[in-house]
Amino acid sequence: DAGVIQSPRHEVTEMGQEVTLRCKPISGHNSLFWYRQTMMRGLELLIYFNNNVPIDDSGMPEDRFSAKMPNASFSTLKIQPSEPRDSAVYFCASMGWWPNYGYTFGSGTRLTVV
Amino acid sequence: DQQVKQNSPSLSVQEGRISILNCDYTNSMFDYFLWYKKYPAEGPTFLISISSIKDKNEDGRFTVFLNKSAKHLSLHIVPSQPGDSAVYFCAASVETGANNLFFGTGTRLTVIP
Fold first, then answer.
1. Which of A24, A49, B10, B105 has its CA 20 to 30 A from that of A66?
2. CA distances from A27 to A83, B34, B46 (A)
3. What is the pLDDT of residues B5-18, one digit of tens each?
C-alpha cells in the first residue's frame, strides 16, 4: 500500500493566484481529512469527508477555500485567490473503520504564497 | 479555541533519560486520546493511544498516562533515543472511532546523544 499520496510536495505561488492541492487516500478508507499545520495553531482541521460527502467544513477559514471529493480515490483543496497568510503545510489524512482507528497522513504540501 | 493544548513547544533530553511530554484538554466529553509523532518533511504517524476507561497504556518504551480529573495526559519515553527526536502531537476525540480528532500544537523533542 502506497499510503496517502499528496501532490505537489512544494508549491510556491504569487498572491492572488489559484492553488490546487491534491490527495489520494488509502484504498478502502472511507473518511478523508484536510488539515493545515501552523506554528500558532498546530494541526487544525479544515474539512472532512465521509464516503465522499463533506461532513464538516467549519474549519475552512474563508470562502477562498474549497474542497471536493469527486470519488473515493481523489480529493482536492483549492485556494482562490491565495494570500501570504495561507502559507503553511497542508496535510491530507484518511481513516478506515474501527479497529483501524487512527489517521494515516500524507507527507503534506508545503505552500508558500509570496 | 484550542481544546487540546501542549504548552511546551520544545523539550531537550539526554539520551537514555526519560522524556515526558504533556498535554491538557478542556472538553470533558473527550474519551479517546492519541499521540502522533512527526519527522521533518513527513506526515504525522500514529504512536500510541488510550481510552478514557484506562489510566495507563504501555507499548515498549512508550507509556501514556491519563488523568481524567485533571484533564491531563502525558507521554513517557524511557529510555530516550536520538531517533525519538521529532515533533509530538497530542490528539483527542469525543468518542472512540469518531471521525474528528482535535490536535494540540505539538512539542518538539530533541534527544541529545
1. B105
2. 33, 23, 19
3. 999 999 999 999 99
